[in-house]
Amino acid sequence: MEAQSSSGLLLSRKRRREGSNGEAEEGERLGKKIPRCTVGLKHPAPFADELVPADNKPYVRVPMEEAKRGTPPERPVRVYADGIFDMFHSGHARALMQAKCLFPNTHLIVGICSDDLTHKYKGFTVMNEDERYDAVTHCRYVDEVVRNAPWTLTPEFLTKHRIDFVAHDDLPYSSAGSDDVYKHIKEAGMFAPTQRTEGISTSDIITRIVRDYDVYVRRNLQRGYTAKELNVGFINAKKYHLQERVDKVKRKVRDVEEKSKEFVQKVEEKSIDLIQKWEEKSREFIGNFLQMFGPEGALKHMLKEGKGRMLQAISPRQSPSSSPTREERSPSPTFRLPFFSKTSPPPSPPPHHSGARGYLISEDDDEDDDDVDDDDEN
After folding, report:
1. Structure pTM?
2. Rounded distance, CA 333 to CA 329, Å?
3. How far is CA 281 from CA 270, 274, 276, in A?
4. DSSP state at residue 233
5. N or C: more exposed end of the chain, with fewer CB within 10 A?
6. How far apart are CA 373 and CA 378, in angstroms?
């Protein structure tokens, strides 16, 4: 695969990164709407030692005015940004994004120092050089990565990589016995300043880890790392395990407290509801009681009505003034026992009941009996 170098040289890449400085980025800068599927990159940036130049044309640097106006597609402005890039974070990515956007047509080259130079001039790193190289190649703004970059940029290095401008924040960077390692770059008019991202840096991240050392040690011990891997002594390891147990107990107590608070809150809500319902039922009960047993309640009317009916039932009725007297009353009808009749004589009494006879109920029969008795006497 092929790509364009800063001087128009045709370079052959062993690994290709699609869309590194093509129409997608240019169209995006011009405000054109690009399909979302064309924005993503599929391959990491290649290393500089993997690019082979096709010819040996002389290197001619692009002036600042021409770079700002925009160069032809076959001649992008080659911008170089160097650093350690330990624990690659968003501050690094933002600095590279600014370097990429300095000019309309930019080819961004990133130089990364080796472990030997970094440990000598800056200090120990968390990530080794291979890890730092690989992390930067996966940044979307990077077109090319230079491994084992020099601490101070020499004219030979700038010519070798055909660098037009060097991007870095404009604060003086004192190191390697110099007040500012970019001083000669600034004097040559090749310096392009960028802005630092406040609140995020590798030193800040390391400071957080050191500050919360015990927390992270306990975290890794809990995840299965051994005390030897973490360089923790036997006594400290036991201390961390004990602290972890104490924290578990505290968490359990806290959970119980939260659950108890929730339970008490629910009980209070239920009790309030019960009290409200009880008040409603009590008012309803009192109203029904007064309606039944009150001064003008239904019970009083029922009692009055029952008393009137009882008095009416036990009091005698008054006879009408036109009713006949006893003498004027018609004789009462005669009633006979069902086995006696006036036409048939009573049966003869049995021998042992000679005096027994039938009894008539009517008054006429009594008179007849009296006549019979008189005849017997005569």
Report:
1. 0.58
2. 12
3. 16, 10, 9
4. -
5. C
6. 9
